[in-house]
Amino acid sequence: MEGLMRGSDEQTGALFSYQSPESLVPRDHPLRAIRLVVNAALERLSEPFSKLYSPYGRASIAPEKLLRALLVQAFFGIRSERQLMEQVRYNMLFRWFIGLSMDAPIWDVTVFTKNRDRLLEGDIAREFLLAILADPQVKPLLSSEHFSVDGTLIAAWASMKSFQPKDSSGSPPGPGRNGERDFRGEKRSNQTHESTTDPDARLYRKADGQPAKLAYLGHVLMENRNGLIVDAELTKATGWAERAAAEAMIEDAAPAGRVTLGADKAYDVAAHVARLRALGVTPHVAQNATNRRSAIDRRTTRHPGYALSQTIRKRIEEPFGWIKEAGGFRQTKHRGQERVGWMFTLRAAAYNLIRLPKLFATT
To answer: Transposase IS4-like domain spans which residues (predicted)?
Structure first.
């Protein structure tokens, strides 16, 4: 048997490297296909970006790099922007995707956050989602006739201790950084109380038997061919928000009507069903016949397409699952409806992007 000489454990950190991040990423890495779509979408947003910045003054972080960095945060479930900056410092895959060279300095997290907030002004997250859907490779994957809608609870970045009476009559928490607060016997509602930490958050119970929590509602509209998100919206958590968001999103996605919209029993409300029909939308809503008459009758249920929509609409739990688990958005780390909604929509776009490599491979 041929002998082997023991290798040296000599440290070589002082040596120069002439490799680029591009050379370190495997040719078949799924992020390569995603980056092509992202770059094409960002190119379509060049004009909206220009409107957000002055032609004079100090150069900011390029909005293209900023958005790619936020996508990295969503793809890999990085908890905070501070942790994102730390990982970009040493992760060559992240640097390559964002468009940073090996020796490019990393942004200060405060500067990064201020530049990110500038993109709120132009509703760039939604524009980015639409720019992805407009890609010539993506458009053939989308259905223009059959859709599904649903909403999910997004926990707010606010504790129940912050839910105080609006007239400031509540007793403060006990001493200490996290002092105790006794809520026993106290009636609390959104009419009389609000969070001192995030006033846009609402006390909401998703279903009977579940605890009420400070939250928002995130809504997505999914096309039924491949289960891609075609619109996303975040609202305050109210009992009617899901239906109002569904009507707004389907009207934007199919202004001419003549489409179907699948949904669960929460959408089986006579006024909502009537509104959808007035928009030219066939409501493929699950029947809720508990103690009342359903607004969906044989005119709808007798068609085979109704049963098919009821099967496919359940796939909408897949993007919700990814956004909340892999995307780290079960509880937002931001405050205010505008900022939380922006981040929710960006994660909806990220969900579409992680689906695309496999969908491209099968077409």
So the answer is: 206-353
DSSP character at residue 303: S
The pLDDT tens digits of the residues spanning 267-313 come to 999 999 999 999 999 999 999 877 678 999 898 999 999 999 999 99
Q: pLDDT by residue (tens digit) across 324-350?
A: 999 999 999 999 999 999 999 999 999
What is the rounded CA–CA span in Å between residue 303 and residue 296? 12
Q: Is the dihedral of CA 138, 140, 142, 144 positive or negative?
A: positive
β partners of residue 155: 215, 331
Q: What would the pLDDT profile of 109-151 be if each residue is shown by its tens digit?
A: 999 999 998 888 878 999 999 999 999 999 999 999 999 999 9
> What 8-state DSSP symbol labels residue 139?
G
Q: Which two tokens stand for residue 342?
A: 């922006």
Domains of the chain: 21-122 (no CATH), 143-156+215-361 (3.30.420.10)
The residue among 153, 142, 76, 119 whose CA lies nearest residue 347 is 76
Instruction: DSSP letter for 135, please.
Output: S
What b/e readout covers 42-69, taking b as 16+ CB neighbours within 10 angstroms?
A: beebeebbeeeeeeeeeeeeebbbbbbb
Closest CA to 151 of 329, 326, 346, 316: 316
pTM (2 d.p.):
0.91
* Average pLDDT of the chain, as a whole number: 90
Parallel, antiparallel, or unpaired for β 281-285 and 202-204?
unpaired
The helix-helix angle for 124-133 and 30-44 (nearest 10°) equals 110
Report the distance separating Cα 63 and Cα 39, nearest Å: 12
